[in-house]
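FORM 7B: Structural annotation worksheet

SECTION A. Query
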Amino acid sequence: MPLTAEMPKCLVKIAGEAIIERALRILASRGIEEAVIVIGHRGDAVRAYLGTAFAGVALSYIEAPDYATTNNILSLWHARETLSEDILLVEGDLVFDAAVIAALLVTPGSSAAVVSVGRAPLGSKVRVEAPNRIAEFILDGDSQRTDTKGIHKTANIYHLRRALLVDHVVPRLCHAIAEGHVDQYYESVFRDLVEDGSVTDFAAVDVSIGRWWEIDDQSDLDVAEFECASRNEQYDRLKRLHGGFWRYGVTDHSYMSNMYFPVPELVADLKAKAALIVSNYPVGQEELARLAAEWTGASPAHLAIANGSCELIRVLGRDSIRRVTIPTPTFNEYEIVVAGSQTNQFPVDPQTLELDVDAFVQSAIAWQSDAAIIASPNNPTGLSVPRERLLDAARALGAQGCRLVVDESFIEFSRGGRAQSVEDVVDEHANLAVLKSMSKVFGIPGLRLGYLLSADRAFVGRVRSLLPIWNVNGFAAEFLRIGTLYRDAFERSCDMTRSSTRQLDEALSGLPALTPIRSDANFILCRIADGAASASEMARSLYLGHKILVKDCSAKTMHDGDRYLRIAARTPEENCRLVLALESALQVGNRS
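SECTION B. Predicted structure
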């Protein structure tokens, strides 16, 4: 719904083609010449849409008038007169590739079911024993089990042989309907036949590497439409999404996160409290600040907590900043913190990408900025500004009534770690504020947490007053509450992140036509040699060939942005695959 309000689900379109159209087209390509369609909801629409033949397949129809109050066991029973020869049984809400049907049809001898591992646990499942024999059918509502060995999800696509149908399935169907079991799945018949030993050779055809999707809701539809699109169309869509990439089977080296935190025990603690968290209001700023202070060691009165640092950046632009000086390139959100005409963009050195702090300060003063923003380590360069130079800048800007905001979202990943932070001296500099995205460093980008730290209580109070009363969700608040119990694990995760980034840097340094900039964060900015493919071409090539996302810096405000890729470090295994893919893409780009 609402797509099925006026049409049956099988006529919903995927990539411009109705689900049942795609199924019939694929079945026709595998030699199927006749199909019987059991129709219920808006069956007239199916008849009108498909007619008596489609893609060379002759079509006939069987009505299931009680579809709204019964289950599919009755639908199959209605078609019992057709179950007298080998058949394919296919649900009408499945999207699949031809390879799935091809694998099913080449299974010799026995009846067979298409199965996959790694799919969502809902719906019917089977337990498979070697060699590919179904030892048990498991339906929703059957007793739950903790042992998942050999458990596969069924795709609801079956190749059923005549002997099985005539000798077993049809009689069992008729008996079940006569007993009034019209609310069951037809898989209950298969389950009982295997369980009582009537059938011992029901085969499992594992298509885990194949593509199929059961369309039950809008999320399923979205994934199927994405997967059925061309790789170029997929890439363009992903660039518009700004996240949620885990749904689409991609490896995301474009956005940065701590891959080693939170640890499974912390996630389990959150999961255990999920029912309470979602059914109760979260806490407000005062309690959030107290919880965050346990992480930072700062005074709670000096903290404003937000739904990620982006929320704070927008608040600053609405209330506290009228004229701002920022280095370029930097995090894109800072470029829109205030109207473009009120933003003084100070370019870093185009060769070294280093920030000339003295010149930056003088530019901010000359511009009469009320705020200057420095990210250290910077995004996308990964370079840090030494702590003492930041304090020098704070003093010089403070003398001119200009606030210095230091973004330390990646400081824990730097070589100096938190020892390079200026958080511990905000009390000494009234114009100094620290802004931090906790989402990145703690590996919780889906929870969205960030804070602003300043000893200027009036400033912090204004920021708080512009935040919604419940701007941070209950899961994020609970993370703050219990996270400090895992401080040692967090420190280890930072060590592991630094190690992974160093290894990635070394591997990238060995690639021709690519120069990585030594990073102080968990990502690496790489310059592509002149004459090689552009950054946008390279990023697209990595996705088209390997389903790997990296950040193309063409849209960044920087010199030669179309020559730079930003690559986030992930696990060593993923980093290794990225380097191999990048090497291949560079070779292709150089040949072209």
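SECTION C. Observations
The two ends are 47 Å apart (CA to CA). The chain has three domains: 69-216, 245-258+489-591, 264-485.

SECTION D. Sign-off
Analyst initials: ____
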